[in-house]
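hey so i finaly got around to running the thing on MFS transporter from Levilactobacillus angrenensis. pasting the sequence first so u can double check i didnt mess up the copy paste, my clipboard has been acting weird all day
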Amino acid sequence: MAKQKRFDWILLVILMSYFMILLDNSIIFTGTVKIAQDLHLNQATLSWVSSAYSLTFGGFLLLGGRAGDLFGRRRVFQLGLIIFGLGSLIVGLASNAPMIIAARAFQGIGSAILAPTTLAILMDTYTGAERTKAIAYYGAMAGIGASVSLVIGGVFASLLTWRVGFFINVPISIWMFYLAVKRLPKASGQPGKLDWLGTLSSLIGMSALVYSIVGDWAQLPALVIAVLFLAGFIFQEHRTHQPIMPLRLFKDRERVGAYVGRFLYLGAMMGFWFITPQLMQHQLGFSALMAGVAFFPLTIINFIVALQVARLTAKWGNGGLLVGGIALTAAGMLWLSFFTPAIGYWWGIAAPMVVIGLGQGLSLSPFTAAGVAHTQGADAGAASGVVNVMHQIGGSVGLAILVTVQDLFGGQVGGFQHAILTGAILLAVALVAAVSLIVPGERQK
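ok and heres what it spat out for the 3d tokens, dont ask me to read them lol
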């Protein structure tokens, strides 16, 4: 009985904390019009409400993962909750552009601490079948949370105010902090010191890389800075005895495949989540609320399938499940790329969403499991950090690619079709990574 009680409370803390991060991203997707109106933001300034968050989130992820290894998961997790909750409060109170942009950047630091730390806590807490089940729930939350959050964001933006979506994080953060004190095991961390040179070079390199994707000027110089500092970071990690990201993580074929595949998969999905609600509002006349509700075919199927992942993994293996999931997602995206207003919502969007939801439910948990496969102790936080780096950076890159493709073609429908087709191509490459790296790597163990 005690074992079951521990599983319930710790998993609740992990999943609720992860859901807060996902909720904020989706509120931005559905609430941008209202935010711009309330704060009198032009399009360029409005883009920084999202970009400031992505910048610090991507830049601090590796630091967040390593800090949990050194200073104790619970302590670092609590720090992340304080930063995230305080940042959410300031965003909700924002009265002008500098205030909301600065608050979103601060909030991104909290997310960068929470995301890898929650996954590392999961790895520390569960073993065997319990770990498989916990990872299945964690991976499923990445898809279910993003889809459900679109609905919640639409409700807030249409019926209340976009500010509620940020204010709600404050009591949730306080509750999570209380549960962390009561339920998470207290740990002092592991002996060692922080690699400050690696931390600084990764922070500058990752931030510059994200800026080169989401920034609106000096993107090429930012990319050059990113390449130089990330190259310096890799050299530092090679020579130091206590790296912030051990390069041995990339010696495992299965993990490398998971990192590459997750990067591509989230690139396709983030673009899909961003441009599809806009299409439904502009071409089908949906409100922000209805555009969120229109994701229910994906969300419901995703939820049902995700609950079966642990059982299906035991039957088909993690790699086999992942291959099937990516293939289904790619097929659904390809189908969606044929949408026209004449076809309508049910056959042109809802039906492909069912296939995408089925594939997503089968994919995200196995991607997470493969990304932290065969890691122990000190490497758990670092591997969790890399998983989240690929998730965040892949999403940013993919979103930029799909939006750019959409803008290249005249008309919103034509642009949407080509962007979604590009997403299907990214998924096809992710499928190649799974077949050539993850499945063989799993069989070798």
